[in-house]
Design goal:
Keywords: Iron, Iron storage, Metal-binding, Oxidoreductase. This protein is mostly helical. Helices cover 66% and strands 0% of the residues.
Amino acid sequence: MNALRRTADHGPAGLTKFHRLLLEQVGHEFTASHQYFALAAWFDDRDLPALARVFYRQSLEERDHAAMIVRYLIDNHVAPDIPGIGEIQTSFTEPRELVALALRQEQQVTEQIKALAKAARDELDYTGEQFLNWFLQEQVEEVATMSTLLNVVERGSGNMFDVETWVTRELSSPAEGDSNAPETAGPAVS
């Protein structure tokens, strides 16, 4: 019998709390990917290509995060039962709303990753805890980027030309591949 599914005290399907939370996180990451795609499309439809590129890239990055977790689950003999995605918002009136939503989303993901790290630590799952270190570091960067972008949009006072110029200058170059990033299930797209 698979050691990861061995006892009833591990909850549904015999999984540990950590593995159940990881499976849920796959859904959260795919939801974030879809939400970012919706934000990108909104900016794209309003001829704001620099902001659209940032959010299209974020969408791909979140997809890769889900694929990293799936790879970890597969490598640890946990069936990757892929959950559906949650609700996404598609109706907005002004650019600030979209960036504020992105920041809230990153803050929420940060809390989810912290809960995962706590579950791994509580269960003495040292490889799980180590796996999450990269995600914790990534979330610091994501929250900082969205916080700065929100500040720039607010300071722009509706002048999206200036915001686009700043985004082109500061955020347009794609991030170089992180050699410390966990491997994805399937090819990485970002």
